[in-house]
Amino acid sequence: MRPNTPWQEVSRNASNLCDDAFELSELQLKMLRTDFAIFRRRIWTALVLVPISIGILLAGLPVLALALAGTVGELFGLSETMGQWIVGGSFFLVAIVLAALASRTTIRSLKAFGNSQRELEANIRWLRKMVSGQRNSHNYNSDPDFLREPKKEI
After folding, report:
1. 61-114 tens-digit pLDDT
2. Is-contact 69 83, C-beta < 8 A?
3. Which among 20, 30, 128, 142 is least buried, having the fewest CB atoms inside 10 angstroms?
């Protein structure tokens, strides 16, 4: 058997590198799909809470606030204006709590893409090593953690 020429070795190595790059691209796409599915499940709560909180504020706030302000004024012997301030402040606090809950859920949902980002960075580092001649195998796990559903956060 004849030894391979340097150009044959370069061609073979380039072909192997391209195969590895395509395989990494396919794995990266699978991970992105998994992260997007997790994102869709998590974002649902925020997408429901925001319109509900806005609807409540816009539709029922004026009537409810005036009625409640009159009741607070009568019960505690306060002026009607003071009752309106108390009720208005209470409604404002409830709206802030709902908005904070929605934003927290949204931020948590966006973190689902961190798995893809970390793996993409690792894949790029590995490809750079391969191109620079530092042969080092990538550690692929047959049952990767990123494909498992993450534990529920409280």
Report:
1. 788 888 888 998 899 999 988 988 898 899 899 989 999 999 998 888 878 778
2. yes
3. 142
Instruction: Give residues with Cβ within 8 angstroms of 102, minimum separation 6.
Output: 45, 46, 49, 50, 53
Each residue of 31-57: pLDDT tens digit? 888 988 888 888 988 888 889 988 887
Identify whether the C-beta of residue 127 lies closer than 8 Å to the C-beta of residue 24.
yes
**Which pLDDT does position 143 carry in this prediction?**
46
- CA–CA dist 26, 124 (Å, integer): 14
Contact predicate 43/108, CB 8 Å: no
Neighbours of 16 (CB within 10 A): 11
pLDDT at residue 18 is higher than 90:
no
Residue whose token pair is 């409830």: 94
Q: Report whether 95 contacts 57 (CB < 8 A).
A: yes
Residue with tokens 């961190």: 114
In whole angstroms, give the CA distance from residue 62 to residue 41.
34
CB 113 within 8 A of CB 64: no
